[in-house]
Structures are given as structure tokens and as C-alpha cells.
Amino acid sequence: MVGHLLQHHPVMQALHLLLARGELGKIQYITSNRLNLGKIRREENALWSFAPHDISVILSLVGSQLPETVRCMGGEYLNHGIADTTLTFLHFAGDIRAHVYVSWLNPFKEQKLTVVGSNGIAVFDDTRPWNEKLLLYRQYLTWTNGQIPTPSKAKAEPVVVPEAEPLRAECQHFLTCCHERRAPLTDGAEGLRVLQVLQAAQQSLERDGEAVIAIDLMPDKSVPTLAQRLSTSRGKQSLANFLRKTTRLSPAAVSLLREAERSLAALNAEQLAALIKAVRVRLVGVQDIANAISTAGGVSFAALDARFMLRRLPGVFAAGEMLDWEAPTGGYLLQASCSTGVAAGHGALAWLRERPA
């Protein structure tokens, strides 16, 4: 049994009854907002932390069908690679649409589910007192001449829901299912459907979003050292030649600098040194698995001795995908990474034995 607690909330059960009696008509769209200030996590993003229960509820309201389309956008502001806010769009058969908005960077708490039907709107606000948690708006539109929709100002009707503790109801449901040997409301199949939607949303978030990384093009040099070198006059030299002679940057590295800063020539020595130490590169996607290989580029074998130690940095060893080589993913890559790792480990031990006590 999957612990999707919201499915056992008495208000959700009352909402299902409203739908079964046809009081909302045909479902048109559903919105779910789960917002708060914290708890901020580093091991998972807001989508995986907040959205599972809301997705579970939405799937149950549309008859346990999976969406035909999933789109997700979000932003990361506190920790690199972890979205603090996401907005997920779901499109189901029958032109039913839903969105799930989650964030842990909101100044107030909001846990609200809105179901819009052709005849009525139901709002489940879990932050309100019990007798106000479920409101029903009947006939929220009137049609003039059968063509012009006009909003109705009718007051919301509170729906009477017997008060009960959702966790207690969930535990009792579990015991009943065990005693009667029947599948629970949130069984493994239901949990799998939720995971499928979450995975599709995560893939969309990664595919449609972007990430920015900072690359240190000269990790063995400090900003002051670089600034001192770059403070010399370049005379009539092109900027590329000047950088190559003063810093030994490769043409590819200079191209990265130009991509990150269009007005590269206008930077002073300190600004240019800071850019070299942290050039920002925007990533907008990844290759599919069919084209995935061990990353091209890395430490060349010419820069290593027989023990896989860097010739210019004694005591630093490289192995696996740190090396400049390519191979198909799978067994070849794993074998080569393990083998070079063992060789580098033996090399490190030999180097340590040679050092004076």
C-alpha cells in the first residue's frame, strides 16, 4: 500500500461523491497549489517533495487514467541542480487539463485543489477551518443569447463533511485490506502511475529547462596571478594571440570566453582573470543514450606518467572518465574505468612509498 494520505482525507471522499452525483458536470480542468516557505531540501527538488500527493489525487479524479501529455517548468535559486519551484501541466483524454504548482519559496502556506466542471466548481482548501474546507460554486456561469458567458456571483456553498483524521482513516483502511485480503485504494499500480507522471515531469523539466555551470579554465592559477599576467600591454596582438601567449589558453577555451562575454576586449585584467576562473556555460540538454559515450576531452595520456600521475602536478592521479578517451557505454566503459582506477591506485601507493618519511 502506497502512503498517499490525501486520498484518505474525508474531503476528498466528499469531492468524489460530488462528481459521482454529477453536481460538477464534466470535469474541464483541475488546479492544485502546494506552497510554503520551507522545508527546503537538498536531496530532492520541490516536484518530488511536494507533488506526489497532488498528482495522486488528480489521477483519481480523472478515473485513474494517465495523461497524454506532461510538461514541467521550474527554477532553481538556492541549490544548484535542485528546482525550488515547479509548474507541471497535464493533458488527459477528453480534453481534461490540470496543473500542479509547488514551491517552498512562498511567504504563506497554501494547499488548495480546485476542480472546474461544466456545471460547478469545487474548491478544497486544506488550510481553512474544517467546515470551510470544501466549497461548492453551482452554476458559476450564465449564457446570454446562448453565446456570451457571464460569471455568476452566487455565494459558495460549504459542503458538510464528517470530521475525521486522514492518517487514522488510512491506517484503518490498511488493516481492513489486510483482513479482507483486498487491494487498497492506493495500491502498487496506483503508486506506479504517480511515479510515471513524476518521471515524465522530471524529464520535461530537464529537457525544457536549462542549467548554468561555471568552468575554471586555469585551476592551477589564482585570480591575482592571472590578473598580473594579463596586465601587460598586448600592443597590436589580437586578443586570442595575447591570451594564448600570456595564459596558454587553447583556442577552444578562448571561444568559450567569447561565448560567455561578447565584449571580451573591453574587460580589464582583473575582470578577464575572474572570467577565466569562472566562465559560465549554459546547458540546455543532453544527448540521448544511443549517442552517449565517455565524454570526449579530459586529461591527455601525454600529460600522465606510467603511474597515471600528472607530470605537472605530482601527487595528483587521474583515471576513468577524467581521461581523454572515448568508448561506448556499458561494459567497455566500466571495465576501462575500473582498470585505470586500479592502475592509478597502485601508482599512488608506489609514489607514496618513494617519498621521504
Under CATH at level 1, the class of the largest domain stands as Alpha Beta
- The CATH topology assignment of the largest domain is Dihydrodipicolinate Reductase, domain 2
| Integer count of domains | 3
CATH superfamily of the largest domain: Dihydrodipicolinate Reductase, domain 2
Class computed from helices, strands and strand pairing: alpha+beta
Terminal CA distance reads 60 Å
Indicate the mean pLDDT.
88
Can you walk through the features of this model?
The protein has nine helices and twelve strands. It is of the alpha+beta class and 357 residues long. The chain folds into three domains: 5-208, Dihydrodipicolinate Reductase, domain 2 (2-Layer Sandwich), CATH 3.30.360.10; 212-283; 289-354, no CATH class. The strands form three sheets. It has an eight-stranded mixed β-sheet. The longest helix has 24 residues, at 331-354. The chain is elongated and about 80 Å long. The termini are far apart.
